[in-house]
Design goal:
The protein has 275 residues and is mainly β. The protein is 9% helix and 45% strand. β15 (208-217) and β16 (220-227) form a beta hairpin. It is elongated. The two termini are 29 Å apart.
């Protein structure tokens, strides 16, 4: 990761010193035990963050707190406010009222999926993006993915549909490969790369064309690429569809949402970049 961070500094200049925390459900890492507890909803757009904490009062009643602030140098502070009198299930339209500010919430992030929070009256604790839909198993890699490599060699891209379960390598838990057998990815569960996903691209003669190594959360990943044994480049990965063909973006729902002509074009695009 040190090599990766250095490469990003060279490629992206000042932009590499900051990153955007991934929007979604976050948790206090030490409190994840499989039992009901408190949680965090976090969204960041541009440099503005919206933070919501669902927790409990001292008498056991559930409640929530919200705060909005600005991120700078991967850190931010916001007033944490409690509201009352809002709409409940089955009620007519009602607007909530500000009850009070309970103090400040302080956030600092160490990556797009990890960081720390200090809540009013508490010590700083580690937080992390909560993943519940994609465990580190082969089936979590099914779907259409895009791989974009950027560096001194310029920009290169692959778009591939991973749809076939293969056997496991010595350090992985099972390959997932394209239907033509020329592109495959696998979770690494042993060795120095444990926790990463490794992908290889070959040609029909078995010659190695590219190696991709990345860490991902839900639908987004970052890491390193090496094309034809050249220098390492920064790698940005995106899951475009789930295994069932459901789009992960903001427009594409599923394959039935694509016209026949566009579906053929998409299939051709995937085939082109799978070779």
């Amino acid at each position: 990761m040190k090599k990766f961070l250095f490469l990003l500094c060279v490629l992206l200049s000042s932009a590499a010193h900051a990153f955007m925390p991934q929007a979604g459900t976050w948790v206090v890492t030490s409190e994840v035990n499989g039992l009901p507890g408190r949680g965090i909803a976090l969204d960041v757009q541009n440099n503005i963050f919206a933070f919501s904490l669902y927790a409990y009062e001292s008498n056991g009643q559930p409640t929530f707190y919200t705060g909005v602030g600005t991120l700078s140098n991967n850190s931010g502070v916001a007033d944490l406010q409690r509201f009352t009198g809002g709409r409940y299930l089955g009620s007519a339209s009602m607007s909530a009222n500000l009850d009070k500010s309970v103090g400040q919430v302080r956030l600092r992030f160490t990556s797009g999926v990890t960081g720390f929070v200090q809540l009013p009256g508490e010590a700083e604790v580690a937080i992390s993006r909560y993943g519940f839909g994609y465990a580190a198993v082969p089936s979590s890699l099914f779907g259409i993915w895009s791989f974009n490599s950027l560096g001194s060699l310029g920009l290169s891209a692959d778009v591939v549909s991973l749809s076939v379960q293969g056997s496991a390598t010595s350090n992985g838990n099972g390959l997932v490969i394209s239907s033509n057998g020329l592109f495959g990815c696998e979770h690494q569960v042993r060795g120095s790369l444990a926790g990463d996903v490794m992908c290889v691209k070959i040609n029909s003669s078995g010659q190695l064309l590219a190696v991709y190594r990345y860490i991902y959360s839900v639908n987004e990943g970052e890491g390193l690429s090496n094309i034809s044994g050249s220098v390492d480049q920064a790698l940005f990965v995106r899951r475009l569809t789930t295994a069932g063909g459901v789009g992960t973006g903001i427009f594409l729902r599923d394959q039935s949402h694509i016209s026949a002509a566009n579906e053929a074009a998409l299939a051709g695009y995937i085939e082109q970049f799978s070779h």
